[in-house]
Amino acid sequence: MDFRVLGNVEVSEASGAPVSLPGKRVRALLAVLLLDAGRTVPVSRIADALWEQPPITAVRQVQHCVSLLRKALQGSGTGLLTEASGYRLLTAPEDTVDVIVFEDLVARARRSMPDRPGEAVDLWRSALALWRGNALADVCHAELVHRAAYLDEQRVVATEECLAAQLELGRHREAIAELTSLTSGFPLRERPTELLIRALRACGRRIEALDVYQAFRGRLNEELGLDPGERLNRLHRELLRGDDTGGEVRTAAPVALPAMPAPAELPGDLASFTGRQPVLRELTKHVEDAGGTVAVVHGIAGCGKTTLAVRFAHSVADRFPDGALYVNLRAHGPSPALQPFAALSQLMRSLGVAPGLQPQDTDELAGRFRSTVAGRRLLILLDDAADAEQVLPLLPGTPGCLVLITSRAELPGLAGRTDALSVPLGPFEPWESVSLLRTFVDGGRLGDEATLRRVAGLCSGLPVALRLVGERLRRDRRLTTTVLATELAGPDRLDRLRLPGDPGIRSAFDASYRALPERLRSLWRILAVAPVETVNVHTAARLADWPEPQADAALERLATAHLLEVTDTGVYRFHVLLRMFAIERADVEDPVESREAAARRLLDWYVSRVDAAYQTLSPEFPPIRRPVERSRLFATKPAAMGWLHEESANLVECGRYAERRGLPHCWQLTVGMTNWWVSRGSRPDWVRSLGAVLAMAQRIGDREGQWRVNHGLGLAHYLAGNFVASRTHFRKAISLTQLLGRARDGLWSHSILAELELEHGRYADASHTLHRAIAMLPNNRRLPRLEATLHRNLGYLRLKTGRAAEALEPLRKANVLLSGISADVCRSYVELALGEAHQALGRPVLANRHLRQGLRLLENDHNRRLRGHAHLRLGAFLLEHGDPAEARTHLEVLLEQPELVNAEDVAEARKLLARSADPPG
């Protein structure tokens, strides 16, 4: 399979047949992955390449595009790997990607030029023949514009070099036509004009050469107000003198370096260096594959970027015989950041060029630096970079050097203009943290393994914190890990992460914080004190009271600066220690009123969304807030449940925050999560949460909240099998609705209470509850699920009390109420009851039909308790009226995972199997 980006983005099979790529964004995705083939491309970079302004749903849309691309490349031998931070394309051999072939041919041509210019021309021609138009022509938008411009520039440079080589070989006449076309396409570019003048002069066409010069000079002056450069002016003077010798105007040689040892400026490596083996392997592979280029190691302050970069630089220094240079760019140091001119001057001095011989203009000095290092193999470590603009002037212009950059920011601007490898560096894994602590003190003083792991965990995997803790243990022989763990668990953890005379970890965080503009600092503080574990664009916008696009851009900038982490699901969270620091800053800089106002905005928004989910999942229950906001409902029940699950941890935290402050949001959030608690939550946690909320509602006299929470506690205890507590809370809920003058709002409490009383054989109580509830049903509004549930329970009551014939009428009424609506579980209950009634009346054919329909309605339901009960009822029927073997099959379903099925149903299944003619062995 062949991949092409030097023109339209295309893929073809080995036979030449084109492979269809579905849509422009899929082609753009393939282009991004091909340009970084073999390297992981972060999702953020992919989104920047696919959209001018990535939408809120960018992560999901990128995943969709990846799925489409995988399908298109299926069976091609090209793998597309999903990794933690993005995606990586594993292509077939490199000669199948035209841009890689082009770069290889150009590199070989340049190596051949000094000794074999004829071969060099052939190689350049082969490279240029790969082009089919402008690079990335059909996907060139957004971030890909920079990559396309870079590739197009390489094409022009290769063309110039090829034509210059032809002139070296004396092929002047055949080059003139191509040079004329090139100068027409690039009318303000000096190099093609210079080559054309040289070719014309060599062919004796001096007057035409002078005309070309005058035309170029006129264009340059008219459009830019500039004059031609010295090389072109010198060539012009030679023409005026009548010098038609055709002598070549050669490129200035690199600055000659004085005889001096190769620079060796790398800082010392740490003997205690620990872990990071996957990152070191990735960097090594990058150097081996690319022969030395640019790599950026970026991450949170204190994560060990410089330590890692120094370790790696020492490990590969022998591959760069011309020396190793080091510049601290001081983006986050106490002194001002190093400007590009000062950094360039330092590099030139390290290479032996005295300050007096250096140009005083930054751009000119950058050009001189590139000339000086051309053809040399140097390792350059640029430590603590602020942004791409600080780094770009310091990059060599020719291959052969390795530039290793460390930064607290991701430097996305660098990726668009170079082929830099981006290496995110996160906190240590737990084993790495423990391993680093062991390098500071002997095993006898480290205490037991659990305490050591606890100390490491309290440092949150941050190497700088671990080193500070390790140094404290080494210096103070009286300090134990047990005492240290107690200290670090206290409220002053950041104070403990420092040494005498050392500013500690707080200083590193403060430098990153001060580098932000005030609006981002303010948002960062608000996010830290918010009662949530993670944030997204919606919650950030409510906390800051900003439009969502503005909040989205701010979150991305904070993540790029590694002041927030991006999770696999695309939401943002704080590193534990960074959040502590941000809360400190909020305590100092933000009034309590502004923080509480931000939290209230967040609580209001969460309650509105929870209410929308609640109304979608339980449309017949009274809404949490009035008036009802129908426009905010979720499109589907799975969407509502999915949102509740994604936000469950945040909703619980917000509920606790509201409960501590006596706000009604606490019961509103807890009640709104009822469906999540029922299907996915922990029963004990649910009961504890409801208990705390009920106490708060009683304390402030909130009867609405008390009614809602008592109903929730009744349901929670019912599902937990606590009959007495469940009945008590349902009765309290019913009484509260009567006190509120809204007795009908308690109908669901009546319904579940009746079901509870039926299960425990309290038939008289169940009869009273049911008839009272049915009498309260509204005449002007249909509540089909509620009405059907009440009539189904009335049918069960008559069935349980030996009145099977009388049970049919309410059960059939329930079936009619449920027809035409999506209520498979409710219908299943009714069908099973009808089956039992017909069985009791001696109608096995009808009983069989209803029981099987009851089980069939639960095929797609995840509730094993319900399915188990349906299997039990059908199995019991078949033992008496059907095939005993099939009956045992249904009964044995309950024994496969008995802990997930109702215990009473399991016991009954065991009894039935024991009485069967052929019990299981």
UniProtKB/TrEMBL annotation:
CDD domains: BTAD. InterPro entries: AAA+_ATPase (IPR003593), AfsR-DnrI-RedD_regulator (IPR051677), BTAD (IPR005158), NB-ARC (IPR002182), OmpR/PhoB-type_DNA-bd (IPR001867), P-loop_NTPase (IPR027417), Sig_transdc_resp-reg_C-effctor (IPR016032), TPR-like_helical_dom_sf (IPR011990). Residues 1-91 bind DNA. The keyword Signal does not apply. GO terms for molecular function: ADP binding; DNA binding. Residues 1-91 form the OmpR/PhoB-type domain. Keywords: DNA-binding, Transcription, Transcription regulation. The keyword Lipid metabolism does not apply. GO terms for biological process: phosphorelay signal transduction system; regulation of DNA-templated transcription. Belongs to the AfsR/DnrI/RedD regulatory family. This is DNA-binding SARP family transcriptional activator. The lineage of its organism: Bacteria, Bacillati, Actinomycetota, Actinomycetes, Glycomycetales.
